[in-house]
Amino acid sequence: MLTCSASMLRLAARRPAPLYSLSSATSITSQLSQTPQSRSLSLSSVFSPEKSVASPTFTNRWAIAVPAFLTHLCIGAPYAWSAMSGPLTRDFGFVCSSAEDWSMTSATAPMSILFAFHGFSAALAGKWQMKVGPRAAIAAAAVSFGGGFLLSAAGVATHNIGLVYLGYGVLGGIGLGLSYTPPIQTLIEWFPDKKGLASGLTIMGFGSGALLFAPAANVLLEKFSSLPTYLGTAVETITENGRLFAESGGKMVEVVYANAADLAKLSTSGLQEGFYVVGSGDTGAAMTLATIGVGYTLAMMGSALAIKKPHPTYKVTGTSTATTPTQSLQNVHTDNMFKLPQFYALGTVLVVVASGGMGLIGVAKPLMSEVFSGTLPSIVTASFASSFILMLSVGNLGGRLAWAAVSDKIGRPATFHLFTFGSIAIYASLPTIIQQVIQNQSAASLGAFCGLSVAAISMFGGVYSILPAYESDLFGTKYVGANHGKMLLFSSTAAIAGPSAFLYLRSLSEKAAITDLLSKIDPAAFQEKFGSDVSALDALIEAKTVTVAKLMEIAPAGVVDPTPFLYDTSFYTIAAAIGVGAVAHAMIRPVDPKWYEKVE
User: CB atoms < 10 A from the CB of 30, how many?
Assistant: First the structure.
């Protein structure tokens, strides 16, 4: 088993120091209190609900959009998790997965767990967030979210998937949940006349988080990585329990063989086809997560200190009628949300559209490499696959802002109809587009695939952007933060269902493809390639020694590579699920007045 360097273990265990100790804070407070004009600098004062309210003279609502956007920019990082899932699947093998490496399902799970706890924590913390105000909520989130990155870094360094799940998944998800709705509700209160724009301005930061995380992760991974030991191509190996072993330095070591298809997925230069010693390289994933975690903690803490709610006397000027943040008189109390059919109908739309978006985002980079790199190797490089993440992020960002503006013009119901019917058409057409790329080796069809994927993600982002405003239209503005937290329970469902469905259906397709290929491959060629006969197939697959790409090396001429079509079933399934959401949305009617809070 690979052991991690002492320096990395020290980094994973390291925790950021507090800004100042309790004793020093007390001393400062004591000194300042000696003058009547002094203000307390204790944490309870800095992050108190009173400090979360602007003064009567502060009316620059656009300035509040900055910390709201920055908070969501940080917590939007999970949308680029596929930039990290690849390195995690080859943490030991480096060039390709070894037997001890985590599967793609395991490496993608942290994102699903994070978004699941995002919904749970947002739902449970809704009333608490209203009580303590946005400053305290975002400050607590900074500690949880950043600390989650650090704990997950320790998990990668020690190859403990449980720590990665607990850190990035649970703590990161709680931090996300605590900081998701406060900036949205705060900005909606500053923009009561443009609620769709306000929620869009905030949540577009969430959608653009990948634009920051993916490039930063790629740079840091390259900086902190070290190449594995290369043994060459003419190496005598033996197979034991599905694993390959070769002699190196007078002892038998586990090795992996990297072919051209494996190397095409990597952005690392200086690698050749052949055998590499397992555990001799370092992907740099642990150091990358730790570094980014520290940066996010500091950025979110700064945002917490800058954000503030409007003063009760605040009015929007420059419109025909002065507008106040408490304009709505028809409000459904948050305790009654689970009793409303509109809540479940709207939640159904969120589940199905978000499942498709999260599934596509969760596998974006490996999907692009697997599906298209074999057909268009000069175009679909590792760099292009990383750029695909950024393309989707631009769609997510642009959709959150553009669709929010559209919804203010044509209304939230009409916009959601566009989301459901448009998404059905896109996901159902993607397998056909893939077929055209493979058959015609068409760069134009590849562009169509990318364009349609970006359009689908723009609608996915649009749902999240417009949802708070749609909820305020239906249920009132008074409890929009707490109500939206409950709505995010459906997002938690999507976080588990979307990526899991994509990868499960892909796994079924892969198993069927391997079975089909084996029926066409000479058993003698299989024995020579893998050092074992077909009876050991299960062990060879489990050890990741046998893959579709490696079987294609010994397949007869004319056999079509099934790899590009492994996701077809996933796309068709998502299209069908969104059809259910379209029906649910068509059934939404105005809330029965009996559920509105009585005005005293």
Answer: 10
CB-CB neighbours of 187 under 10 Å: 30
Say what the pTM is: 0.77
Spans in the chain with pLDDT lower than 70:
1-44, 196, 318-329, 599-600
Query: For residue 319, what pLDDT is reported?
Result: 55
| DSSP-derived pairing of the beta strands 230-232 and 237-240 | unpaired
Other beta carbons within 10 angstroms of residue 330's beta carbon come to: 17
> What is the C-alpha to C-alpha distance for residues 75 and 175, in angstroms, rounded to an integer?
8
Q: Return the pLDDT at 14.
A: 38
Q: So what's the pLDDT on residue 51?
A: 76
- Tokens for 190? 């500053």
Distance CA 308, CA 319 (A): 23
138, 304 Cβ separation under 8 angstroms: yes
Characterize 173-186 residue by residue with b for buried, 16 or more Cβ atoms within 10 angstroms of its Cβ, and e for exposed: bbbbbbbbbbbbbb
Per-residue pLDDT reduced to its tens digit, 14-25 = 334 333 343 444
Residue 97 is predicted with a pLDDT of 92
Structure tokens belonging to residue 411: 């209304």
Whether residue 274 contacts residue 257, with contact meaning beta carbons closer than 8 Å, is answered with: yes
Distance CA(308)–CA(513), nearest Å, equals 56
Of 511, 516, 512, 547, which is closest to residue 529 (Cα–Cα)?
A: 547
Per-state percent for the chain, helix, strand, coil, to nearest 5: 70, 5, 25
For 326, the 3-state DSSP assignment is coil
For strand 274-277 and strand 243-248, is the pairing parallel, antiparallel, or unpaired?
unpaired
The DSSP-derived string for 71-88 is: HHHHHTGGGGTHHHHHHH
Q: Where are the beta strands (DSSP E) in 386-507?
A: none
DSSP SS3 for 288: helix
Q: Which residues of 130-161 are buried (b: 16+ CB within 10 A; e: fewer)?
A: bebbbbbbbbbbbbbbbbbbbbbbbbbbbbeb
In 3D space, the residue among 175, 174, 169 whose CA is nearest the CA of residue 155 turns out to be 169
Compute how many other C-beta atoms are within 10 angstroms of the C-beta atom of residue 413. Answer: 14
Q: Is the separation of the CB atoms in 330 and 596 below 8 Å? A: yes
Q: Give the whole-angstrom CA distance, residue 486 versus residue 119.
A: 7
Give yes or no for a contact between 481 and 123, defined as CB atoms under 8 angstroms apart: no
CB-CB contact of 93 with 459 (8 Å): no
Q: What pLDDT shows up at residue 9?
A: 37
- For residue 34, give every residue at least 6 positions away whose Cβ sits within 8 Å of its Cβ, in sequence order, or none: none
Report the C-alpha gap between 540 and 556 in whole angstroms: 21
Tokens for 136? 């305290």
Greatest alpha-carbon span in the chain = 91
∠ CA(589), CA(595), CA(599), 5° rounding? 125
Please tell me the predicted confidence (pLDDT) of residue 328. 59
